[in-house]
Specification:
152 residues; 38% helix; two-stranded antiparallel ribbon; single chain; alpha/beta
């Protein structure tokens, strides 16, 4: 990856994420990319993760040359529009130098902590957690977020 390059945030609807990454691949070059989309399917019983066993972030990594990191999935855009929510933000990826600016960004948008959630494969859980939060918000008519306890 090109070190010191700016982080590009791929903030698009999940159904457009892969096509957008493909279309932008040449322009992105080797810049690190932050994938924030979660593939969700909605049915009578609520939201559920997509059927592909790989996360959108992992599939995006196959389409671009630079390192892909994933994160901020648990943060609702509506809450972010009203300030820094009192919750933690998670970022995962395989490239530590690409993860650093994503963690810096995450720390700026939440009142909680920006936490390194491990390798890019962890995006499967982060994207799935979005379905859980959507279901909680619908069932309890709330604005759920995530705070991890027991960490320094």
């Amino acid at each position: 990856a090109v070190r010191g390059a700016e982080l590009v945030v791929l903030a698009t609807r999940a159904d457009a994420a892969l096509a957008t990454a493909t279309a932008l691949a040449d322009a992105l070059g080797e810049r690190p990319l932050l994938s924030v989309a979660s593939e969700l399917h909605f049915g009578p019983s609520g939201a559920r993760p997509g059927s592909d066993p790989r996360s959108l972030a992992e599939r995006t990594q196959d389409l671009v040359r630079g390192p892909v990191v994933a994160g901020l999935h648990s943060l609702a855009a509506g809450k972010l529009a009203h300030g820094r929510p009192d919750e933690d933000a998670f970022v995962c990826g395989d490239d530590a130098e690409a993860k650093a600016p994503a963690l810096e960004l995450a720390a700026k948008v939440v009142a909680g902590r920006a936490l390194d959630a491990g390798p890019l494969a962890s995006a499967r859980a982060l994207e799935g957690m979005t379905a859980v939060i959507v279901n909680l918000n619908k069932r309890y008519k709330g604005h759920a977020g995530v705070r991890v306890t027991g960490l320094p």
